[in-house]
Design goal:
single chain, about 375 residues, alpha+beta, eight-stranded mixed sheet, 9 helices
């Protein structure tokens, strides 16, 4: 599981972001004080805005935990916070989460909740790497169930007299989606923030080409680097790649980088996707274009002096499972956490592509 925490997610109409104490007035007015909204929920209607404000302080204190996921639903047109959506239960051992949500009554019937739920489900599957996302609703609240259905959740059954909400003991309808229910097609697009250093401004973009490199025996190839600079002291694992030169096509750039850093002659299998992230410490916005590349042969590397003397760059040859463990181990540094958040979703998608390719070949024989 990739512990990216509550990252900002944008949809056509919504901004899903971390709550702030200043959201208390909107939250109290738009849904927390409305007994119609809280009717089927497990927490009581807030008596006053101070109760809402205290709750938001408690929520804000949890955002440093990478396994905490709780989004304010902001209407991009009005700037008002109109609801919330969160992971209410997380089981890391089986990579599963239960989602809960509520929305201002004024926003009901406009497709807003399915828009938010679909975006959060995509984030939990593609970025966090969960295998199961589930939700539950009171049997007397079928509108909530229709939200889940619109997002592709399958009916699992009804648990009789299994919970208590503001209406009393109730029957609960359970729905879920698992990773294999999804058709992972098209390029992955991930947008991440840097919560390790405070954001002041980003004054430049860096266009980067990177690759998940594999061979016919199932090995994956990465670079190992040691850093002792403004980012701190850290030993890191990272995909091979680097900056794209002016006017250079991305495909040319990645094959050049693989030759320089890994000494690899390779072929591009496909484009995996784009990850947009930030290094706030150096005010940089990174545009990381990822490719899946098959290594054909290995020869001499062509490392720069900085890569040799400053970063002590060398090659790591790992299984998929070893690579995941290596990224997780490097979360002991702030830069290591940023890199893991960026690259684990790409590595997971690469493994899915290769698995589908292998299954397709086996079925054709």
């Amino acid at each position: 599981m990739n512990k990216t925490g509550t990252q900002t997610i944008e949809t056509p109409r919504l901004l899903l972001r971390r709550f702030r104490p200043s959201d208390a007035e909107d939250m109290f007015r738009n849904w927390a004080s409305d007994p119609e909204v809280t009717r089927y929920l497990t927490w009581p209607t807030h008596p006053d805005v101070e109760a809402t404000r205290q709750l938001l302080r408690d929520w804000e204190a949890h955002y440093e935990d990478g396994a905490y996921f709780n989004w304010a639903i902001e209407d991009r047109q009005t700037g008002q916070v109109i609801g919330d959506i969160s992971v209410v239960a997380l089981n890391e051992s089986i990579e599963a989460a239960d989602i809960g949500y509520c929305l201002s009554r004024a926003a009901w019937g406009q497709g807003i909740m399915p828009e938010a739920l679909k975006a959060v489900m995509d984030y939990l599957f593609d970025v966090v790497g969960l295998n199961r996302v589930a939700a539950r609703h009171d049997v007397n609240n079928p509108k909530s169930g229709r939200v889940m259905e619109k997002c592709g959740m399958r009916l699992e059954g009804t648990l009789r007299a299994s919970d208590r909400n503001n209406c009393g003991i109730c029957d609960i309808v359970c729905r879920s989606m698992i990773r294999s229910d999804r058709e992972a097609s098209g390029e992955l697009r991930v947008e991440l923030q840097d919560h390790e250093w405070p954001f002041t401004h980003a004054d430049h973009d860096r266009l980067i080409a990177r690759a998940i490199v594999f061979d016919e025996d199932g090995w994956f190839y990465f670079v190992r680097a040691e850093r002792h600079d403004e980012f701190g002291d850290a030993t890191l694992i990272e995909t091979s790649g680097g900056g794209v030169e002016p006017g250079e096509p991305l495909e040319t750039a990645i094959l050049r980088e693989l030759g320089e850093e890994l000494g690899a002659e390779a072929e591009i299998v496909c484009k995996i996707g784009l990850v947009s992230d930030y290094y706030n410490l150096i005010h940089r916005h990174n545009l990381n274009h990822y490719f899946l590349c098959r290594a054909l042969s290995f020869g001499e590397k062509h490392l720069t002096r900085d890569e040799i003397e400053d970063f002590h760059l060398n090659t790591l040859k790992l299984t998929y499972e070893e690579a995941v463990c290596e990224y997780e181990k490097r979360r002991d540094s702030r830069l290591g956490r940023l890199i893991a958040n960026r690259e684990l979703p790409i590595l997971r998608r690469a493994a899915e592509i290769l698995r589908r390719e292998k299954d397709g070949l086996r079925h054709s024989l």
